[in-house]
Specification:
6 helices, 5-stranded mixed beta sheet, alpha+beta, globular, 17% strand
Length: 280
């Protein structure tokens, strides 16, 4: 009588539980090892950024503090023998240094606030053409040794809803980079574009540009380009600008070529009014 069971050669192979455990255990260990390696690489990268930030921050604070200490020492020891103009110059140096320190602290606090998501967007309707014209005029007044050229292309409504504090923070960082990373005899150009579908502000310089291989990293906090070591900075500007733009439902786009210059576009689209934000 033939056997009711198929021959053993036709049966599917069955692995012992020990063999299955060994196989899946090995796969799990490989995945765990890969995950740990990735975490280690991330931690190493963050530690490198932290060290760079500490070094940059120390330098950034030390420079104005040195100026203050020097001018205070001169005024203390030789103030009586200095004429009025030289005393005024030393007080002016102290004031500028204090403003630099204050700006550094403000940038660090803003970066922390954005990271901790404690910054809100509170848009109000304003005449954006007049507001931006005033902003660029203030910027030009504060940087009298540089030329800032403003163009306006307005085919849409001038009244737009923006959070002035957030937008000012974004633009201050964009212009600060353009001024720092371009030769002093070159012009900074900015264009305000308004139509019915967008509000865009472009800031362009004729500076050193961003190396192509580094452009994906420029929005990381504390990142600084390899060709910017001779210029002071903390590497917070673009990361803060991007975070603030995100709070405003906006985007920042960068187009840069090393040795040619950089154009950065901040765009809000669609350009909402207060009535649109609040609903019908």
């Amino acid at each position: 009588m033939p056997s009711p069971f198929p021959p053993s050669s036709s049966l599917p192979s069955v692995h012992s539980s020990t063999e299955v455990d060994r196989r899946y255990g090995g796969e799990s260990q490989a995945k765990d090892h890969a995950a740990l390696s990735q975490l280690a690489a991330t931690a190493q990268s963050l530690e490198s950024l932290r060290q760079d930030f500490v070094a940059s921050a120390s330098h950034e604070f030390r420079t104005p503090l040195t100026v203050i200490a020097s001018s205070v020492g001169i005024l203390r020891d030789f103030g009586d023998s200095l004429d009025q103009e030289r005393r005024r110059l030393h007080f002016e140096r102290i004031q500028i240094a204090i403003q630099q320190i204050t700006q550094l602290l403000d940038d660090m606090l803003m970066a922390n606030a954005v990271t901790e998501e404690t910054v809100d967007c509170n848009p109000q309707e304003i005449d954006i053409v007049a507001w931006y014209g005033d902003f660029v005029s203030e910027l030009q007044q504060a940087n009298k040794d540089r030329k800032i050229r403003l163009s306006i292309d307005a085919t849409g409504p001038r009244i737009r809803a923006i959070d002035e504090a957030l937008v000012r923070q974004i633009l201050c960082n964009l212009f600060s980079n353009a001024l720092k990373y371009s030769p002093p005899d070159t012009c900074i150009s900015t264009v305000l574009t308004l139509d019915r579908t967008k509000l865009a502000i472009n800031v362009s310089d004729q500076g050193w540009g961003i190396p192509h291989q580094e452009q994906k990293q420029i929005f990381q906090p504390f990142f600084r380009g390899s060709n910017t070591g001779h210029v002071a900075g903390l590497g917070l500007g673009l990361s803060m600008a991007q975070a603030c733009a995100g709070k405003h439902a906006g985007v920042i786009r960068v187009d840069s070529a090393e040795g040619v210059g950089t154009n950065i576009c901040f765009e809000l689209s669609p350009p909402l009014t207060i009535r649109q934000l609040d609903g019908p």
